[in-house]
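Sharing in case it's useful to others searching the archive later.

Someone asked me privately for the predicted structure of Oxidoreductase, so I'm posting the question and my answer publicly. Question first, with the sequence:
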Amino acid sequence: MIGLSPLNPRLDALSGKRVWIIGASSGIGAALARQMLAAGALVALSARRADGLTRVAGHSKTALVLPMDVTNAPAWTLNHRVIEKLWGGLDLVIFCAADYQPQRAWQVVAERARHTIEVNLASVYLGLETILPPMLREGKGHLAIVASVAGYMGLPNATVYGPTKAALINLAEILYCDLHPRGLGVTLINPGFVKTPLTARNQFSMPAMVTADEAATAITHGLAQGQFEISFPRRFTLPLRWFSHLPRRWRFAALDRMMERS
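And my answer, the predicted structure tokens:
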């Protein structure tokens, strides 16, 4: 039986690749930066906290620290110009910046929700406006968007976070359909629970939790395989995907019981 070809180009040789990681000061983004620097990639690291980025970069000569607020449009343009001047372009951009506050529906504050939406979703559009034109001119490049299994379905405590991640899943599929015929790769990353400063805010049980390093290894493996969707750990994401397809009456009843126990 002949296997199907991968949906994306295989990124199995990172040495010399020009990578921009958005949200690289902690968590998955920081772990990815360290692994890709160790593999010989040129890595630009962006996030608000310059001190965190500097710690991640360490003494690497192939790291480029570019602090920025991802919700600031001019900052995208400025930092992209720096990268273009130094490296001549980008091979891979990873959108990993995220904001999260566990909350039920009655705890929502509109201004706080707006901030989460701007960081998790609107900032990706600022990035696309900046980086897509040169990639399309060259007919090459790769985008990776970190969403979440929280985007598979409506989950309690993810009242704002979940909808932004569902939107990113939808956006990644649209981007693939638009950009793949024009030579670009698009990867969707859906982690389960990963031990990061964001998940440390949760007060409920988080099954099958993995470390940020384990998450980064799963992502680099998926990129090397040319996968469109990289989800992990499979022992958690596959049952959750199945659960999301249950009839709503059953699913809502199960979620109600889950919240009663939490």
